[in-house]
Amino acid sequence: MRMRAVVIAICVLGSACGGASSQTQSQSAQPRANAPEPRGETLSQLLAPRGASLPREQLERIAAFIRRWEEDPYADMPENDTEHSTMFLLLSWVSASPDVRVLVCGVLSSLIERSGRASAGVAPVITPGEMFGMAAYLIERPDADPASAEVQVEGVRSALRWYDAALDRGQIERDPLIDEVLARRGELGAWYQESRIVCGTGGQ
Hints:
8 helices, about 200 residues, two-stranded parallel sheet, about 45% helix, single chain, mainly alpha
């Protein structure tokens, strides 16, 4: 199943854009043991200057922020010192960043659409989680190929966290297809292979 990818930004520093696919069996993307702790900086400070290439250490702090945020993406983040939502600020940063390239194949939303079993409001919830999860993973592993199964699976993993959070808050109703994927959360690499998903920039 070929899915059209949407390019959100540019490459993570040191990554091989469009290079050979990485491993397909991916482990859960957890912040590294030496991931930087929050330093009391505001989100405006963390993401600045917008559109500029950032030092590696700052990128790692952004990834660590995303990992904390995706545990409950609907919670108020104390670092957000602006009138805008955290989602808006992160989306603006990813879109303008010269350090990160995210290919959004919309794996889950495309499967929902094709199945004809979509529950209202699910796709808009999971798609941002998919994108931000991939952005964090690409910072954590700058040699990963954005189009690879490895990276796309990590996007799915993060999307499932957003799905869980939206369910807990009563934002959406359960979706049968996403529930099937959720039941295989521990083997998403195998699920991705079995689904025969191909992410690329061409047509479907």
